[in-house]
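Protein modeling request. Please complete all fields; requests missing the sequence field cannot be processed.
Requester role: graduate student
Desired output: 3D structure, token encoding
Chains: 1
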Amino acid sequence: MTQLKLIYIYIYILMSIQEKYLKYKKKYLNLKIQYGGTLICQACFHLVTSPEHRDRCNTSSMYQVKESIISPEFKPMMTYGLGGCTALLMVYFTKDTNMVYKVVLGHHPIKENILLWFTGYYTQDYNIVTIIKTPGEYIKEGEKWIMKGNNQEYWVSNITKDNCKLILEPYNLIEMHGDETKFNSSLYFKMQPGPKYSDNYGRYIDINYM
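Delivered output (210 residues):
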């Protein structure tokens, strides 16, 4: 075997090793992006920027509010990356049958804008459960530490309608790192089969007006 052939074989082996390395590096980075950060939707388990996610879920980004009627084509709704912002979730129940008619989900950094959205979407035609996910902090009451929203009094005093039930879901900005951000800085709604929303720990809580 000539020296030139040996050189060609050596170059071929190096290129093969490099190709395999780049292939597995790309695969590793993709997995790290999908499962190591906040960009994976916890409803469909696809990247929030992917076509698969857009086909399966209805996402409200910052400054967006979306309305969705309950139907066989209804998609789970979600918002993410709150990071100090507030999320608004309004679930409308029919007064005669107590069935869910529609859902509104919004995400905004300014609480006054959230209140404007609530006012704009409020109606007396339905019973409404309103969930406000807002920044909060732990405070000590007696021997216990409890999470309290920074603007709790603002929401309690402004969302006071006879046919509207208010639920406050404060989240802690200090805990916004690692896996905790999957639910701490996001809000999910789905029908499974009844209406449910996600709390800060990934548990889905039943939504009932009665």
